[in-house]
Structures are given as structure tokens and as C-alpha cells.
Amino acid sequence: MATATIKQFPVDVSQRSLGYNLPQLAGVRLWRPMLAMALMAFIAGTVLGIVRADEISGGGSAETIERLRHVQAGVMFAGFAAVFAAISFAIARILGQFRKSGGELQEAAGGRVVTLKMPVTAKVFLATMMMAMMALLGAVVLHFVFAADLNGSVASLELSEQRFIVLEGVRRVGVAGFLVAITFGLATIAQVLRFQAARLRELASERHND
């Protein structure tokens, strides 16, 4: 495999399609399980919200209500982490389809196979997605830890309120990170489409010269 450049695009040149890379293969395999996990988490979070509302209307203990608040937030944001991961994996799957199918098309045409190297936007997409995932999952875990740490005292309830506010900020950072990552993922798709168009024009020119 050699390295070359089609105008402004850094590429790899080979005789056969390079197929999926590792992140794209993960996208192919994981976007459906992540989506299923998100749906289950959202359903469970809704049920917990109903239970908490019933506790509030029925005059339940402050400890139980506060514990349910942490647990519900943890479950719901596990769902958000899963659905954002599903979207990110779906983007990786789309990019993988472009890479694999584009290579197979060039291979079938009997010419060299030119594959776009991973763009900077794709690297930023992966790094930002992982950081956002860690932020959300860290907040989810801490919600469950803080729920278990409640003991019903006034001091414990006040501390729980402060912790909830801090974790709300962490969750928002995680959500914002995922949105930024998805933006870079979509920008990568646009760049891949530009490369594919340029390569198709070049491929047609090569065939014409032959």
C-alpha cells in the first residue's frame, strides 16, 4: 500500500478495498444495541419519574424522594449517553460504508484503489465523543453512589442537593460534548463525499485514457 494525494486529499493507494477501519467496524456492530439500551433506559426513567411523583403526592419521606431523584437522573442520562452513542456509531457506520463500497467500486473497475486517510475532523469526532461519554457515564455512576449515600438527615439531604446541582453541570458538559462530536462527524461525511466525487471524476478520466 502506497501513500499519495488527490489534490488536497491525503490518501492511501492499494490494490484492494481496505474495508472498514476499527471505529467503523464498531459502528456497524454497536449502533443497534446502543439504541436499544437507550430506549430501555428512557422507559425505566419514565417509570421512576412516575414513582417519584407518586411519592411526592402521597407525602413520602424526603429521603426516598431525594434518592429517587438521583436514581431517575442516573437512568435517564444513561439513556442519553446510549442514544448519543448510537448516533455517533451510526455516523461511523455511514463513513465505513463509503470507505468499503468506494474501495470495492474502484476494485471492480480494475484500477488502483484510492482510500481517503482519516481526516482531522474524524479524529476530533472520536476524541470528543469519548470525552463526552466519560463525562455522562461518570455523572450516571455518581448519581447512583450519591443515592446510596443518603441517610435521611437534614445535612445529608442538603449535601445531596448540592451534589445534584454539580452533576447537572457535568451532564450538560457531556451532552454539549456529544453535540460537538456529532457536528464533526457530519463534517467528516461532507469531506468524504467531496473526496468520493473527486475520485469518481479521476477514475472516469483514467478509464477514458486507457
Straight-line N-to-C gap:
23 Å
Oligomer: single chain
Helix run count: 4
| Average of the residue pLDDT scores | 90
SSE ordering: EEHHEHH
Low-confidence parts: none
- What best-fitting shape do the alpha-carbon axes yield? elongated
> How much strand content do the residues show?
5-15%
Strand pairing plus helix content: what structural class?
mainly alpha
Helix content: over 70%
Number of domains: 1
Q: Identify the strand order in the major beta sheet.
A: 1-2-3
- Gyration radius (Cα, Å) is 24 Å
Major sheet details: 3 strands, antiparallel
Give an overview in words:
The chain has 4 helices and 3 strands. It has helices at 22-57, 62-108, 120-149, 154-209; strands at residues 2-6, 9-14, 113-116. The protein has a 3-stranded antiparallel sheet with strand order 1-2-3. The protein is elongated. The mean pLDDT is 90.
Explain briefly what this protein structure is.
80% of the residues lie in helices and 7% in strands. It is mostly helical.
Features:
210 residues, mainly alpha, 4 helices, 3 strands, 80% helix
